[in-house]
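Progress against Task 2.4 (sequence-to-structure conversion) is shown through the following example record, which the project officer requested during the mid-term review.
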Amino acid sequence: MPFAGSGGAPLNVLVVDDDGSNRLLAVRWLERAGLATCEADSGETALRVLRTAPEKVGAVLLDVMMPGMSGYAVLEQLQAEEALRDVPVVLLSGHAQPESDVVYGLRHGAVDHIAKPFRGPILAAKLQALVERRERQLALDRRLRQAEAQATTDAMTALSNRRQFDSELRRETAFTVRHRTPLALILVDIDNLKLINDSLGHAAGDRAIIWTAEGLRGAMRCSDRSFRIGGDEFAVLLRGLDRSSGLRAARRFVKAQSKQPLRLELGEGLEVTVSVGVAAADAGNDFDVTELFRRADRALYAAKRHPASRVELEPEDEAERASEPGAQGGSEPDGAHRP
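Structure tokens generated for the chain above:
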């Protein structure tokens, strides 16, 4: 039975040889052992196959002596490309091949060497073992990626979580300081979420949370990063946007939400609303990222004191005060919310 690769498809042994009869002989032995195969008649073709879908290749049986691109040149290219260097390669060469050439191949990434004419059962056994090892490694890589995604993703909304926000904020503020590129930060708070949960149950509160997350996902640019950073609070990092552009983005989100309102049953009906605060590091404050999160949080607090679905921009003097000598605080969120 062929070994299942990513997505359940069999992993292929890529047989690379310019001699069609040699390829046919190798393929017959491999398929007799239950391995799936694919073929390439040149080094250039082999690289195209591997670059298209490296996760579908379990191992490569690579002839050393080929016109054009030799097996050694292919091996060197595989080692130079991160996506390809973990694909196991077995070199196939004639008996007359100098020992130094074999050593060279093994030192430059090949995992084994087989001389022609080869013995079919040994060839198949070696490639079978490599394919099994490759499948185990790919499965481990998938599990690690899934675990990493779960650790940085909010399960309810599929947005990145607070842990990831902290990391992204550090990276974005460092980028802003280094390249003097604007950075806007939007904070969004669902109004009266506790009332919704207490009066209508957490299922209704979950609907409000998901409605807000979907609205952010739809209103922001593809390059903007949205996060759920608390029970009722969200954040958006907008690289390249200054105060006025960040404000327009926030208003666009609120306007889009008003066109697709969420109404929950409570007496005559309760319409879910949000409050939004915006702050930025831009040319107006010399790209100062000091207390960026706190500044956006203060703007959000100001929005909460007004009618629902309000957007507030940090006052210009607030941003200027943050950039004055002796201003306290850093670029990371301090974890404190509104008093």
